[in-house]
Amino acid sequence: MPVATTVHPLQLLDDFPVEAHDLPVSLIVTPEGTIEAPNPLPAPEGIDWDKLPEKALAEMPVLAQLRRCRLARSAVRVLDLDQDGRTVSHDAEGGNE
């Protein structure tokens, strides 16, 4: 999904550090014009819960609720049979154990 932002011309840089959790910008708008990112990086696949400080969860209740839901889903174990008839256990999201 394309992401657009507005910036002051003094905020424009040719290069800067990028982390895996950063959301790439596709379009930058300044008072002087519009800049389209030629090769935007791929968007992150989700929230990096290990890097999210507890303080952020306290300040953003929706994130805390999302994490609780995620933890509840991962606590659910499902038993299935594999193609050879052996019992296998996996979490509700499909990961094998």
Supply the number of helical segments: 2
Q: How can the largest sheet be summarized? A: 3 strands, mixed
Q: What are the secondary-structure elements, in order, as H or E? A: EEEHHEE
Instruction: Calculate the terminal CA-CA distance, rounded to whole Å.
Output: 33 Å
Radius of gyration: 21 Å
Mean pLDDT: 81
Strand order of the biggest β-sheet: 1-2-3
Number of strands: 5
* Shape summary: elongated
Low-confidence stretches: none
The helical percent reads 10-25%
Percentage of β-strand residues: 15-25%
Q: Please identify the structural class as seen in this structure.
A: alpha+beta
List keywords for this structure.
97 residues; alpha+beta; 3-stranded mixed beta sheet; 5 strands; 22% strand
Short note summarizing the structure:
The chain is built from two helices and five strands; from the N terminus they run E-E-E-H-H-E-E. The protein has helices at residues 54-59, 61-75, and strands at 4-6, 27-30, 33-36, 77-81, 87-91.
